[in-house]
Fold these 4 entries.
Entry 1:
Amino acid sequence: MASTRDNGTQARPQVHDAFDNPPKGPVGVHRGPRSLPVRALPYLLVVVLAVLCGLGLWAAVSGSLPWQQTHTDASRVISSHLPKRSASSSDSKPSAETSSQEQASQEPSQSPSASASSSSPAPVVNRGTQVAVINGTRITGHAGSKRQVLVNAGYTAVTATNPQGALPGVSTVRYRDEADKATAQEVASLLGITQVEQSSVASTPVEAILMQ
């Protein structure tokens, strides 16, 4: 017999349907909680796209990727620390042999001049050499005055004389031998004469011919 309430109405029994115990998991438009990898996937895709865009922009500006430029810089640093080869031994030997051959070829050409200079002594001034001062001018006593200039300079064998043969056109100092060349040059310098020549017709080893 059904139970009744105090107010005299009859109570309805409780009826359970399928919605009171829904199945586990998503049903229809309702979905359950998603896992962490699934939720992080969109952010990961955004980061990857950003990195790819950055690499593309870098390559467009610099012309190479970052790791390629790093490899190039590393190669430059390594090459800068490597010892530089100035010249190989095979290259240095021929050059040394060539220089020795050149020196050997030059030595014979230099040896004759060296021997000649060592065999012939340099001319020296000999103030004891006999010097004749010849007056080719019409000035009386001109040769004597020039003789005194040489005596005052230290010459001890100077004579003043008149000409006895052909005379040159200008004042000239003559000398016989090559050994008297330095003496003749000094005599010309003391007497103010610029013409100096070697002559076999000189009356003395050195003679100064005074002309107007």
Note: Residues 131-210 form a domain with the Alpha-Beta Plaits fold (CATH 3.30.70.2390).
Entry 2:
Amino acid sequence: MTVPTIPLHDGTSIPQLGFGVYQVPPPETAATVAQALEVGYRHIDTAQMYGNEAGVGEAIRQSGLDRDDLYVTTKLNNTFHLPDDARREIDASLDRLGLEQVDLFLIHWPLPTRYDGDFVQTWRALIEAQEAGKTRSIGVSNFQPAHLDRIVEETGVVPVVNQVEVHPFFANEDVRAANKKHGVLTEAWSPIAQGKVVDDDTIGEIASLVGRTPAQVTLRWHVQRGDIVFPKSMSAERMRQNFEIFDFELEPAHMSAIDELDNGESGRMGPNPDTFDWIP
């Protein structure tokens, strides 16, 4: 099965489906990613905060795959927003991954109540990293519309993606609209609502009608909306199921029924980026 690639505004492209390693224990990361690569995933999403970049790098080295066949994303930890810290830790990520360049580097959280609210300086550090060839593309994660507007207005450099919480119960439409305005693609984290889609009657009914699992239906909903998704699973069977979402389509009525599950802000499961200020 072939995963579609989506063009980014900087002239590169990104696989629409990836494999996320959030909460994969570091000692198990290499084996888990190796299994994902065997299934067919070629887009791996990690982060400094996850503590498992080294395991991702080990799996890549052991895979024997050409570097050009892989898409690797990592993210700057909240601890390193000051420019000198960011520069140092971007290099540290490359060392842990064993790569000369990643495909995409993100600011993990804007932290508007930390660092005097100056996440623009952090964005400038990523711009420098891209100019130095340490990353092909740069983007952000968990940026609200005002955060996105600010970095674009102050630097003139538009992120290629904004990775934010999106799932049927929290469609995050204001952020998706802001992304679209700037030509930024939306990456959906927690795309199956931490597994809660399994228990939803509407999604379950659609899954029965199309002969798929609730997770597959939900991931297909994302894909048809244009989201980039990277579900995480340590089960080989679920990895395969999550990968098999490009050989069927949801009808418009099914898409609309899932759209109607959106609960707005009350459906949010993770922290609110306007107030989240955790520094590990």
Note: The mean pLDDT is 97.
Entry 3:
Amino acid sequence: MTEHIFSLVFRTVLMYFSVFIFMRIMGKREIGELSIFDLVISIMIAEIAVMAIDSETPLYDGFAPMITLLVIQIVTAGLSLHYPMVRMWFDGKPSVIIRSGKINRDEMKKQRYNLDDLVTQLRAQKIDNIGDVEFAVLETSGQLSVLPKDNSEKETAEPKYNKRDSTNNKDTKEALAASLASKIKYEALPFSLIMDGRVDDDNLKIIGKTRFWLKNQIQAYGVNDFKDVFYCSIDHKGKIYVNTKEKWL
């Protein structure tokens, strides 16, 4: 029994330092930002190390495949430095999710990246309104890089009103923003009102508004039906953001 325990302890310590050394050889990139290729290599090395801890398995049965994976990773990383096509094949390429406040719906669908993921990652970077984003790029590691609009140029796009209502629109909009700001309780969070054509009635109740009011808001942006809206939100200042399902350019 003592010999068995000693063998397990020895193998565990040996595998720990072996995996640690392998990861260091593979580079710091493995720790900071894992691409799909990096993730597969890391998981496989970890799984093989666990199996090698078993006292009934010869150590070389564990080290041989681990060294093979290490060589594959080093060779691939070396080729990626010199050949962009190899790098794109293994790591993929970043995806532009937002450009000039417009959501790239097609790219989100392609990457299977939903609106909840987008809003969560924007919120983590203290962005409460998609309209304030100049560019948002989904990196190959799955992280979202966000470039906010310049504060000096950050202005809300004016809705398309009829000319006959232009004199009162500004006052009405300011009054509406003030009333909404007073009703929204959670100032750090934007409220999603429409997601992929579906109205969030719970959030409408929180701000004390109805679907009729919401329809008037989207009509001011030239949209007549909820189904034509990909995403609509309101921030704590009462600023409305509307992104339609029109083809992204």
Note: The beta strands are 95-99, 102-103, 133-138, 144-148, 191-195, 198-199, 229-234, 240-244.
Entry 4:
Amino acid sequence: MNKKKILVVDDNEDICLTIKQYLELYNYIVEIVHSGTEALQIINNNFDLIILDIMMEGIDGMELCGIIRDRVDCPIIFVSAKTLEEDKVQALSIGGDDYMTKPFSLKELKARIDSHLRREERIRSNDRHLLSSKNITIDLLANEVFCKGVKLQLTKKEYEIIKLLMLNKNMVFSKERIFERVWGLDSESQLETVTESIKNIRKKIRSLDKETSYIKTLYGLGYKWDVTYEKG
């Protein structure tokens, strides 16, 4: 069994060392750095999970996550002394997968790490990185979407919208929530960009599949993934 490799980014050396020593007891390989700048120098390494502090001098955790999210697809767990709900929402909206407030239990941290890594294994094993819905197939590893076997030429944001809706088929997402999840709270884009992106997605799918609707508009509520046969 391959050992999982974890990166810890925190300017508190004692916290880093404590996490490292604890996780190594469970056969994790743990690498530690104490700043966002140091992390950027090694972030292309093949880490299975990143533990990321928020309040650091220079490049803080929020900024670092925004920089690296397009480069890494492993889970990111934020750890921070910040307890306000808006801090947690922002951390998750820019690409974080989990948030723990300091001080935290090492036992709980390990449990969350195990949970995220099991989820990643489920996605990657037995071709379960392929998610299908009628004539649409999404390759979660290659970040590609196919309609009737033909690759859709999507922008990164259009892909992220399809992935978000397909992975949560029974959920309705408001325009605001899609914007937060895909663009991030600090984006300078306008909210109407969501409407325009969904319009473009529908147009690209319709060019290959004229008989099926995949994204349903619930007026006043938002959008959901709902496969519907359309006559004509």
Note: The first strand starts at residue 5 and ends at 9.
